Amino acid sequence: MRKIVLFFLMLTTYFSCSKNELVEDVITKHEDGSRKEVRYYKLNKDGSRTCVRETWYYQEGMKHLDGPIVDGKRNGVFESYYKSGAVMSRGEFVDGKRVGKATIYHENGKVRYEGNYADGKEVGIWKFYDEDGNFLYEIDRG
Questions:
Q1: Ordered alpha helix ranges (H), the chain
Q2: Which of 1, 60, 74, 119 is the most buried if burial means most Cβ atoms within 10 Å?
Q3: Where are the chain's structural domains?
Q4: Can you say how many angstroms the Cα of residue 138 is from the centroid of all Cα atoms in its chain?
Q5: At a CB cut-off of 8 Å and minimum separation 6, what does 77 contact?
C-alpha cells in the first residue's frame, strides 16, 4: 500500500511540474480588483517564460476575448464573447495584424456583419444583417 501511495505521489509531482504547465500573469484588473487582461506563459527549461495566450475577462469573471500569442504577437484565431458566453466575433491575426475573414455575431448566433482584413485594415465588401439573419446592406471598404 505504501508503494502505491508513493507511486501516485511521484506521478502527481511529475505531471504538476511538467513543461506544459502554464503560468497566469494578470496584466490589468477591473476596478473591483478582479482580473481583466491576463497573459498565459509557458515555462521554458532555462527558467524564462514565453507568452502563449491572451485572455480578457468581464468584471463578472466570464471570458471576453481569447486567442494565441506567438513570438509576442497575436497569431491565430481570436474570439470575443458576450457575457452570456455566446461568440461575439471571430477573426484571425498574423504577426499582430488582422487578416482574412472576420465575422461578428448577434448574441442569438446569427451573423451581424462580416468582411475581410488585409494587413490590419478592412478591405473589400462588408455585409450587414439584422438579428434574424436577413441581409440589410453592404459597404465597399476598397
A1: 2-16
A2: 74
A3: 22-140
A4: 28
A5: 67, 68, 90, 91, 92
How far is it, in rounded angstroms, from Cα 66 to Cα 56?
6
Residue type, 121: K
| Alpha carbons 53 and 62: distance in angstroms, whole number | 16
Q: Which CATH architecture has domain 22-140?
A: Alpha-Beta Complex (3.90)
pLDDT tens-digit map of 85-97 = 999 999 999 999 9
3-state class (DSSP) for residue 120 = coil
Euclidean distance between the first and the last CA atom of the chain, given in angstroms as a whole number: 72
Report yes or no on whether pTM surpasses 0.85.
Answer: no
d(CA 71, CA 56): 19
